[in-house]
């Protein structure tokens, strides 16, 4: 019997393994204070659902997952996006430049080299 003086220990927390749909690439958008000072990064992030749907990246074999992140600590030339698992980092991602990244990189697998400021596995 339990009294107020002897609490019953909580049952162990049941951890459930999460699931996520299959995707080919993951696009990370920096929405940190420097990249988003004028709201451009958040607007870019908010626009991706429609852009992905129009490009066929919302489902199927080319599906791209997207996430807004709080800060990449690469605070020049924003908005900044990173394409994973490719390790490609883009800067100055205006709406027009995002359209190029979607077409060239996410759909065709070809980097938009003039917008790349870092490529994982290579020296700057």
Q: Could you explain how this protein is built, in words?
A:
This protein has 124 residues and is α+β, with helices and mostly antiparallel strands. 23% of the residues lie in helices and 19% in strands. It has two helices and five strands. The chain has helices at 40-55, 95-107, and strands spanning 25-30, 64-69, 81-84, 88-90, 116-119. A hairpin with a 3-residue loop joins strand 3 (81-84) and strand 4. Helix 1 crosses helix 2. The longest helix is centred in the middle third of the chain and has 16 residues, at 40-55. The model has no long low-confidence stretch (mean pLDDT 90).
Fold blueprint:
Elements: E1 25-30, H1 40-55, E2 64-69, E3 81-84, E4 88-90, H2 95-107, E5 116-119
């Amino acid at each position: 019997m339990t009294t107020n003086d002897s609490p019953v220990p909580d049952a162990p927390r049941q951890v459930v393994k999460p699931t996520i749909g299959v995707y080919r690439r993951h696009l990370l958008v920096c929405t940190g204070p420097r990249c988003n000072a004028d709201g451009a990064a958040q607007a870019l992030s908010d626009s991706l659902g429609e852009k992905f749907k129009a490009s066929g990246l919302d489902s199927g074999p080319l599906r791209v997952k997207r996430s807004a992140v709080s800060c990449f600590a690469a605070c020049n030339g924003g908005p900044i996006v990173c394409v994973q698992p490719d390790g490609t980092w883009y800067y100055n991602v205006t709406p027009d430049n995002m359209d190029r990244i979607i077409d060239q990189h996410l759909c065709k697998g070809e980097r938009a080299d003039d917008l790349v400021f870092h490529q994982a596995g290579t020296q700057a």
